[in-house]
Amino acid sequence: METDEPAVHAEALVKTFGGRSGTVEAVRGVDLSVRPGEVFGFLGPNGAGKSTTVKMLTTLLSMTSGTVRVAGVDVGRDPDAARLRMGVALQEAGLDPRQTGRELLVLQGRLFGLSKPEAAQRAAELLALVELEDAADRRIKGYSGGMKRRLDLASALVHEPEVLFLDEPTTGLDPASRLTVWEEVRRINGRGTTVFLTTQYLEEADQLCDRLAIIDGGRIVREGTPAQLKAELRDREGLDREPTLDDVFLDATGRTRAKAAGEVQEVSA
Amino acid sequence: MSAALALGQRALLEAWRTPEALFPTLFIPLFFLVVNVGQAARIFPSETTEFLNSQSYAAFQLPSSLLLAASFGTAALFLVEEIEGGYFDKLRSAPVPRSSIVLGRLIAELVKGVGIAVVLVAVALPFGIEVASGPLGFVLLVVLTALWAVVFAGFMQLIALKTRSAAATNSGSLVFFPLLFLTPNFVPRSLLTEPMEVAATLNPVTYVMEAMRSLILEDFAWQRIWPGFLVVGVAGLAMLALNVRMIRNYD
Known about the structure:
heterodimer, A: Rossmann fold, four-stranded antiparallel beta sheet, B: mainly alpha
């Protein structure tokens, strides 16, 4: 990948779903550019179009219109080449409960073109990375939520992707597990992997992300670094205190705190 | 193809690790065999019933049990579980041909079908059933059963991919009952009443059943064997094509 090429670049991305009750425009012309090596946060209330956007970026959902390039590869034109350059861990930790952690990673490695010995070697490295060596040969159905999430992360890294997509990686985790996932994300990013992270947790975005975008009603309504977004709100509203990312989020989505309750949660790990 | 084989291996491991799902596949067809033979064997004594070719009525009934065993479609329920749990998307995010994701499961069904057929015939042998067409006939019988298992699993996978619902997929398996019973299940086609004979003649499962029955009851009678293989061949190719099309358009 060229160094000046964005890690993720989406232009005029649109997704329309047709159903019995009419047409729903889930994503209405999203433009995004994620720089190589950054942790990019993608925020939005429930139903804003976050997961739909991520699924299009990761080849899992067709685009109604628009273009996406991941690590320089046109996702629509050459999805397999794009898949080789990206790792994906979606909202539900997508794991097969009947396999052991090691078996799952070895299979994932083989699907990404590794030979059996290479896949076994890579699985061992990843199990060490996410500290699941002791549980490696146990069936996944016996893993805790945090262990499953870490294994899911490891499976997304099996082919050493340039860009890692994480869709709400800490949803449903206890604070300790959430902290562990944050550490993993930092460690992965520290090795040069670009991370595209969706989250409903504003504290998480503040802690992890270099830049972020807020989507609402299928459109990007704010984009910038957390500091830029807070400063913009403070200056525009003439606030006498430093606004939080919650304030930015509520301002961007036109929600009040009462209305947003249950949609976005603030957490501290 | 290597991705399809790796995924097939995983699907076999999944079946091996879920014996509670495999058990009914063997037990229920054996149960029907015992019950049907118990109810009708005295009506059709082997000595005086021409269509039995001197074998027991159990030999006549064995193809129904083999077809039933090959028509459970539990693999499709595992597929729905995978779709609901997110592992299906994990597989779809890998740079492998979309077709290998459905092919893997069908390869596993073929292997499972072979195993199930061998076990059922082995269990039936001590009850006086012989495969009259000999070892080659036995192999053809097992292959035919396994190919039917692929056809039926392919059909069930289509429902699973279309509906993504365990309830709908489970209901889909019920379609096999009219297919199984609108056949010369208890007596040869020539002894059926006219409406049933017409229905059985139109039902493709009839030809699979008659091919199996021919392999068990008589020396190679190719005119009764090839239509069975033709049905599983055509239906298998159709299911494969539809499965591949479905997963390529899966959103």
